[in-house]
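Budget justification aside, the reviewers requested a transparent look at the raw inputs and outputs of the sequence design task funded under Objective 1. We therefore reproduce one unedited record. The lines immediately below are the structure tokens for a 217-residue chain.
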């Protein structure tokens, strides 16, 4: 996990503070550091299992950033964030939530399947780790909203933003990711169907991210 943390810290140092990807990266760096701390403190029954899941999860985000930086095609779920990362009418909270949506809604399901293949186990064996990772994400969501949401003096201006971000739920995204992981695992011997489902999931999550990034300013 130290390797992915180092890559996120390097991004944090390199990207301008107001870049939308930088906003999400700071959030995700905080999450990953918190997860690393929990694993180190023995809060996961099988530390290696939790670490593999966390690393496979982080690698999908980092691969998307590298693809964007290299001018290569990125997953549809990440494309809106890269396209709107410097839009002056998009609030930092929108960037953060769009990144979380892409990562939880799409990447987490694929990360569970990748971890299962690495650990030679079925998704059921990772359910406890999945829930603990999700609990860490949920505990940070409120802090993220409080940190990035405009203050009371801007409520009138931010009213469209309030309605926009209020329509998205991390808990629903997390539940969808677990269902998606189980379905993908069931389809692992039917590659054409698995690819079709993955493409559909990618596109659907991308559409939600695009809505979350609707300019409000």
């Amino acid at each position: 996990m130290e390797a992915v943390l180092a890559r996120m810290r390097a991004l944090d140092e390199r990207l301008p503070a107001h870049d939308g990807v930088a906003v999400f990266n700071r959030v995700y760096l905080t999450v990953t550091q918190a997860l690393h701390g929990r694993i180190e403190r023995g809060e996961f029954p099988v530390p290696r299992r939790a670490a593999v899941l966390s690393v496979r999860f982080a690698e999908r985000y980092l691969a998307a950033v590298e693809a964007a930086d290299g001018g290569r095609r990125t997953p549809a779920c990440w494309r809106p964030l890269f396209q709107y990362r410097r839009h002056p009418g998009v609030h930092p909270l929108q960037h953060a939530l769009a990144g979380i949506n892409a990562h939880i809604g799409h990447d987490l399901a694929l990360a569970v399947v990748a971890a299962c293949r690495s650990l030679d186990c079925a998704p059921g064996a990772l359910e406890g780790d999945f829930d603990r990772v999700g609990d860490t994400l949920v505990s940070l969501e409120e802090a993220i909203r409080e940190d990035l949401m405009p203050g009371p003096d801007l409520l009138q201006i931010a009213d469209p933003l309030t309605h926009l971000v209020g329509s998205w739920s991390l808990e629903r995204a997390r539940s969808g990711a677990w269902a998606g992981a189980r379905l993908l695992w069931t389809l692992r011997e039917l590659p054409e169907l698995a690819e079709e489902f993955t493409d559909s999931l990618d596109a659907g999550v991308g559409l939600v991210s695009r809505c979350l990034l609707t300019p409000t300013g």
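DSSP finds nine helices and no strands in the chain. Residues 77 and 102 are 5 Å apart (CA to CA). Computational costs for records of this kind are itemized in the attached budget.
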